[in-house]
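Same chain as my last thread, 455 residues:
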Amino acid sequence: MNGQANQENKMGVMPVGKLLVSMSVPMMASMLVMALYNIVDSMFVARISENALTALSMAFPVQNLMVAVAAGLGVGLNAVLSRALGAGDHKSVRMAAVNGLFLLLLCAAAFIVLGMTGVRVYFEAQTDIAEIVEAGVTYTTIVTVGCLGQFMQIFFERLLQSTGRTVLTMYSQLAGAITNIILDPIMIFGYFGFPAMGVAGAALATVVGQWLGAGLGLLMCLRKNPEVPLSFKGFRPNGAMIRRILAIGVPSVIMQSIGSVMTFLMNQILIAFSATAVAVFGVYFKLQSFVFMPVFGLNNGTVPIVAYNYGARRAQRMMQAIRYSITAAIVIMIGGTVLFHVATEPLLRIFDASEEMLRIGVPALRIISLSFPVAGFCIGAGTVFQALGYSVYSMINSLVRQLFVLIPCAYLIGRVTGDVTAVWFAFVIAEAFSLLLSSFFFRRVYRNVIKPLQG
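reply #2:
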């Protein structure tokens, strides 16, 4: 019994450095594998044709929007659960879990309808190249209609994260990612008796991996996560609890959804130069995930620690976790900048890059990566805002950075210079604005929330 109590209370008693490592490293590892399967997906599709790769780049905003909704609501759920656990409010824990699942199911249903009705219009609005349109419609329809597995997988992972069982979260993510990596070449090119399905095979491999991860996540929640019971007996949506989840989750959804809007608009700016420029931008997003995913894993491990100790009124532990997390994020990002400068061409050749793709892509990766260390601080600060219920600050920051600064700068630079290489400097400019806003909001949160606890 004592062993169980220690496990349940580790976010309140374990040394913060050790706790952050135990919470974050498994998630960082699993997210690295997720980044790998994103790259593998595009790597195999690039062997079909550059237009097929461009189609996946154009599909990315839709996929990112699904992740934004599921993960954003998951942030709200995670924060509410962790606070309730820290305060010992078991009734709120159960209520948060079932109402969170209800919200995610509604959102998944909306995307399924979108996948069946609006995908072709979306692609035809971006390009008139028939091969890109058909490949994009095929891929996007499959991943949206089959998205319930993705939503369920993220939900069960958030339940496990809220109680500190990030190793189990890692198993769920690894199962889905490895399944995808194995199935990609089999379904795309038709090995072991499978038909060669092309981009449809890439999409189907993704969906199958997500469903497998969801199934394993459900199993672990039922057997290994007793603090968060899943019981729908007599369930009715609870308006107060849903509002609590949405208050934190919606700003996070909007913040992450802004990335989809930004990517869509940036694709429109780049297609004016060439389809290859769009493909390069898509490849950049796949490659940068190797740098950003570990930071997101680190921050996913930080959220429940900060939220739990906020609920338990332990300010010193909160500040330790925040300092360690932001420092580690910046160090990881510096490593990413070095990697993108030293190994630029080999990274692009993973995707069978043509000479034109290398001409555009080499300076693109080197220029954009200059902003990575600053992004490390901004992401770390955003994690603090989410954990303490100030997700609106992250939303404002993301909105300003990506839509009010990045897109206008990219458009104006492209129009004035006529040089696609110059467009990439818009990312550096936008991150500088983000640093100013993040610092301002962080000081406000510290003064209004953290400092009073220390007194």
